[in-house]
Amino acid sequence: MKKILTIAIILASFIMILNSCQYKFVVEPVIPPPDPEDTISFSQEIVPIFDIQGCISCHSTTGQQPDLTADNAYSSIVGGGLVANDDPPSSIIYQKPLPEGDHYAKYTSAQAAIVLVWIEQGALDN
Questions:
Q1: In this predicted structure, what is the pLDDT of residue 22?
Q2: How far is CA 10 from CA 13, 21, 55, in A?
Q3: Are 45 and 115 in contact (CB under 8 A)?
């Protein structure tokens, strides 16, 4: 009788442990890509991506190049050859942080789409 009670307690404990597990799946919201007809603003839409993704913690005035701080980002990106106007999808500033890119910090798919459209529009300093 004591063995059955012990087994029942162990089984009940095991079931309680299994039932207490919760899985929270993070699903990236589906954001429609930017309309290519709408002008992407570098200062209002591109620079905030670098801040949100934490890029400026490494890529700053005293850190690694390119300097992605608000005051220096444009000159570092365009002057540093990170934009390929003739082939926007091959631009380094677009390719490296892609979700499948080789940089540890990644764009979301929506951020990547915004960066690509900005490059396709001529990578303007606006």
A1: 67
A2: 5, 17, 49
A3: no
Q: For residues 22-42, b (16+ Cβ closer than 10 Å) or e, as one string?
A: eeeeeeeeeeeebeeeeebeb
Token pair belonging to 90: 């091959």
Taking the model in full, what pTM does it have? 0.74
Upstream peptide bond of 99 is cis (omega within 30 degrees of 0): no
Does the CA dihedral 101-47-44-26 come out positive or negative?
positive
Closest CA to 123 of 31, 39, 54, 34: 39
- Phi/psi for 17 (5° steps) reads -65, -45
